[in-house]
Each structure stands twice: as structure tokens, then as C-alpha cells.
UniProtKB/TrEMBL annotation:
<protein>
    <recommendedName>
        <fullName>ZMYM2-like/QRICH1 C-terminal domain-containing protein</fullName>
    </recommendedName>
</protein>
<feature type="domain" description="ZMYM2-like/QRICH1 C-terminal">
    <location>
        <begin position="161"/>
        <end position="312"/>
    </location>
</feature>
<keyword id="KW-1017">Isopeptide bond</keyword>
<dbReference type="Pfam" id="PF12012">
    <property type="entry name" value="DUF3504"/>
</dbReference>
<dbReference type="InterPro" id="IPR013762">
    <property type="entry name" value="Integrase-like_cat_sf"/>
</dbReference>
<dbReference type="InterPro" id="IPR011010">
    <property type="entry name" value="DNA_brk_join_enz"/>
</dbReference>
<keyword id="KW-0597">Phosphoprotein</keyword>
<dbReference type="InterPro" id="IPR042838">
    <property type="entry name" value="KIAA1958"/>
</dbReference>
<dbReference type="InterPro" id="IPR021893">
    <property type="entry name" value="ZMYM2-like_C"/>
</dbReference>
<keyword id="KW-0832">Ubl conjugation</keyword>
<keyword id="KW-0233">DNA recombination</keyword>
Length: 468
């Protein structure tokens, strides 16, 4: 049994080769041949060092512990101390008992379904009768996990609040003053206003996909040309977005997204300004006093791991204490903000790229501030203590009642003046005149006479039947 379970060694060699190439994108062929030739000269040396156990691989402590548990289970199985069933059960619980969520089990089945479909398997695990027992076992296991408190999505991402954004700007993790903050701001703007997903779509975006344009009135905006996405793979030429996502400028604001783009265009290397160049570039680790002297970014794209954890790293550095802030939080913030502002779902999916209106309803969740307001309202009722929300509502009621009273008094005064103006300039002589003024703008109540009483008479009809 070998301890190599991933291709991390090859990835490490590839990263080292990339560093020796100075991170250049579009490396000329003669430079690539020279680098590979130098690597080939070291192969024999590496083989000898590994055979003499002088060159060892670096492995993290977490993976060493997992390897140790796997080896212990395998050795016990070889010594006939554990059966095959016990070996498989031990491997399944190697991360601890019951670590899986009900949705994870459903994801396993879906992965098997995709794999079998790709291999042209003749049956479906999800639909066909041959796998009915599998579906029943899955349903039973999901119910059992739910009874144990699983299935509440404890790791689901949450939306970014306005307070979080303010803290990130205050701690200079967002803005245009530092290279890292500039990269973070670009990522956040592209996620929330272009609707880019996770990591892959950010990784695939190129410099030429975002164009700076102006409206007929001179307002600047950025327009995004979409590439292959999760819902639009390109096999259907008619399946395209009805509109190109746009990001408009904010006049007189230092947080303007168009201004951020212009600063990034100025700071990125001129060699990386062609259309097929990667949009996000790796940050140069330079000191603050060298910002005006050295370039902010390298001539190489940002790594996948960096893009995949950019929101999580921002949250940890700002000490927001929100482990559920992830890359998907940016997209969730966009959707929840538009839903709360009562933007029609048919308009939202044109920006987000969804194909189903039901997907919009999944983002209509209550925010933390709304939960606080509801909780304090209910606490004020159950405890008898007025909360700040309750007092404000009472003040609003009193203000409305006062406005209604003032309106009634004003209308009655106007009614009296209009009634008296009827006799303005008139000459009346002799007789008694009685005038009644309706000051409440209501119809007068007239005396009603009692209703007359009617008596009913029965009509007797003669029957032609002989039996009567």
C-alpha cells in the first residue's frame, strides 16, 4: 500500500517550474525548451537522492494522521484481525463518525449518476426500478441523520452585510490604496455586479472581456462579455444572456467601481494588457514605501487557491468572526439585495444568469437585522418591556393620529368659512331664518318615520283532486 493519494507532488514541481520561468505568461518556445532541458538534467540526481532516502517529500500533519489510520486499518485487515466489512466501515468513518450531511449523501449518488451516464451505462440510479433499494436506503439514512440534528446546512454561506463592508474598507482590505485591497475590490465588484460564480468564472475571465464604455449622456460604465458558465456551456448557440451585465460609475465617490477599474488598468503591467491576458494578476509582495516605485502586480495570473479563498481570507484578516463568509457570499449578497429591493425576478435572472425563476426565491432569506427586529418585537410583547422598534411604531401611530386630528379641525374651519361666504354681500329684511351648518363634512341625520306594518293573508285554493 502506497502513501501517495494525490498529485500534490506534481503540482509542487509545476509551481517551482513556473517560478523559475519568472511567472511569465505566454513563454517563448526557446525559453521553455531551455527550462525543460535543465529539469531533465536533474532527474538522475533526484532518483539517486530518493533511493538513498536523502530527499523526502513534505506532508502536512493532518494528512499524515489520515495516512496512519489508513495503514493501521489495512495492516489489521492483512492480519485477519478485521473483516472486509469492518475495513470499509473504518475507512468510511476515518474523519469521525457521522460526518456527512444528508445533502452530501445525495451528492454522492448524483456523482455516481453522472459518471455512469458518461460511461454510457444503460440504467439510472435516480430513476430506474433496478436501484429502488438504493434510493430507499438513501432516504432512510437521510431521515436518520435528520433525527440526529444533521441537515441544517451549518456551513452554508451567508450574505455580506453593510457593516461588514464598512469594516473591510476601514481596515484597508477593500479600496485602491494597496495592491491586495485593489484585487479584493475588483473581485467583489465583479461578483456582485456581473454575477460571477465562485472561482472558475473568475479564473476564466480575461482582460478583454470587460470593456469601458459611455452612455449617450456621458455616463461611464463597464460591460462584461460572458464566457462559458455553469448554466451556459456553449452547445446551444441560442442560449445566451438577453443583456450584457453592466457596472455604472458613481460620481464623486472614491469607491466608484469604474474608478477602481481605472486604477487597476494603470497599475497592471503593460505586457498584460492584451485581450486574452488573465484579468486577475498575482500581487507583488512589496513594502508600503515602495508602492510608487515598484509594480503592484506580476506578469502571471492569480493562483486558483488564492481566488477560491479570497472572501474567507478577507473575513479572517478583518476579524469579522463569520466563518460562513465564503466566495459564494458575494453572489448571495447580490441576489438577496435585489430581492429585498423588490426587483422583479424576471429582471434579476437576466443579471445573475439563472435559467429558472425558482432559483431567485432560494435567496429570499431574512437578514440578521430583520431577525433582530422580529425578535425584539416579540420580546416586547412577552416581557411587557417596550423595545426600540416598538416605541418607534407607537410614535408613528401617535403622529398619524395627530395629523388626522389636525386635518379634521382644519377641514371643519374651512367648512364654516365656506358656509358663511354664501351670505356675503346679500341684503335680507324681515322674517325668521334658521341656518344649520354641517361642520363635520357629514350628511345630516334626518328623522325617520316608523315603517308601516303589513299583515299577511293566506290564500285558499280549491283542489280538483277527488281525494281531497
Amino acid at each position: 500500500m502506497l502513501s501517495v493519494r494525490t498529485n500534490n507532488d506534481i503540482e509542487g514541481w509545476h509551481h517551482a517550474l513556473n517560478r523559475r520561468a519568472a511567472g511569465r505568461c505566454g513563454l517563448p518556445f526557446y525559453l521553455l525548451v531551455s527550462l525543460l532541458h535543465n529539469e531533465a538534467r536533474l532527474v538522475s540526481l533526484h532518483i539517486r537522492l530518493v533511493s538513498e532516502r536523502k530527499l523526502k517529500r513534505i506532508q502536512r500533519a493532518v494528512y499524515r494522521q489520515l495516512q496512519r489510520r489508513l495503514f493501521e486499518l489495512w495492516e489489521a485487515f492483512n492480519k485477519r484481525e478485521k473483516s472486509l466489512k469492518q475495513l470499509l466501515k473504518g475507512c468510511a468513518n476515518i474523519n469521525g463518525p457521522e460526518k456527512y450531511e444528508p445533502s452530501s449523501l445525495r451528492g454522492f449518488i448524483a456523482s455516481f449518476e453522472r459518471y455512469l451516464k458518461k460511461k454510457n451505462y444503460g440504467h439510472s440510479i435516480i430513476k430506474d426500478l433496478q436501484f429502488e433499494k438504493t434510493r430507499k436506503a438513501l432516504s432512510s439514512k437521510q431521515k436518520d441523520l435528520k433525527r440526529k440534528g444533521k441537515g441544517n446546512k451549518p456551513n452554508a454561506s451567508v450574505a455580506i452585510s453593510e457593516d461588514d463592508i464598512q469594516v473591510l474598507y476601514e481596515k484597508k482590505l477593500l479600496g485602491t490604496e494597496r495592491p491586495e485591497a485593489l484585487l479584493n475590490t475588483l473581485w467583489l465588484n465583479n461578483t456582485t455586479q456581473f454575477g460571477l460564480r465562485g472561482c472558475k468564472e473568475h479564473r476564466d475571465i480575461c482582460w478583454g472581456d470587460v470593456k469601458l464604455k459611455k452612455t449617450s449622456t456621458g455616463v461611464e460604465f463597464l460591460e462584461y462579455g460572458e464566457r462559458q458558465t455553469k448554466t451556459r456551456l456553449g452547445d446551444d448557440t441560442n442560449d445566451v444572456r438577453p443583456i450584457a451585465p453592466k457596472m455604472f460609475s458613481l460620481p464623486n465617490s472614491d469607491r466608484c467601481p469604474v474608478l477602481t477599474y481605472k486604477v487597476f488598468a494603470e497599475k497592471r503591467p503593460t505586457q498584460m494588457n492584451f485581450d486574452e491576458a488573465p484579468f486577475y494578476l498575482a500581487v507583488n509582495n512589496i513594502k508600503t514605501d515602495s508602492f510608487d516605485k515598484k509594480p503592484w502586480f506580476k506578469q502571471s495570473p492569480v493562483g486558483v487557491n488564492k481566488l477560491n479563498s479570497i472572501m474567507k481570507v478577507m473575513s479572517e484578516k478583518a476579524e469579522l468572526n463569520k466563518p460562513r463568509l465564503k466566495n459564494h457570499s458575494g453572489r448571495k449578497t447580490m441576489m438577496q439585495t435585489l430581492v429585498n429591493e423588490e426587483i422583479p425576478p424576471t429582471d434579476i435572472i437576466q443579471l445573475s444568469g439563472h435559467r429558472n425563476l425558482q432559483s431567485v426565491n432560494n435567496y429570499a432569506t431574512v437578514s440578521e437585522k430583520q431577525q433582530m427586529k422580529m425578535s425584539r418585537t416579540l420580546s416586547a410583547f412577552t416581557t411587557g418591556i417596550e423595545s426600540s422598534c416598538g416605541s418607534s411604531s407607537e410614535n408613528n401611530k401617535m403622529l398619524v393620529s395627530q395629523q388626522r386630528t389636525e386635518h379634521t379641525v382644519t377641514s371643519s374651519t374651512c367648512g364654516q368659512q365656506q358656509a358663511l361666504q354664501i351670505f356675503a354681500g346679500a341684503t335680507i329684511s324681515g322674517g325668521n331664518i334658521h341656518v344649520s351648518i354641517n361642520t363635520l363634512n357629514k350628511s345630516p341625520i334626518l328623522p325617520t318615520s316608523p315603517k308601516p306594518k303589513y299583515q299577511r293573508y293566506k290564500r285558499l285554493l280549491s283542489s280538483d283532486s277527488e281525494s281531497d
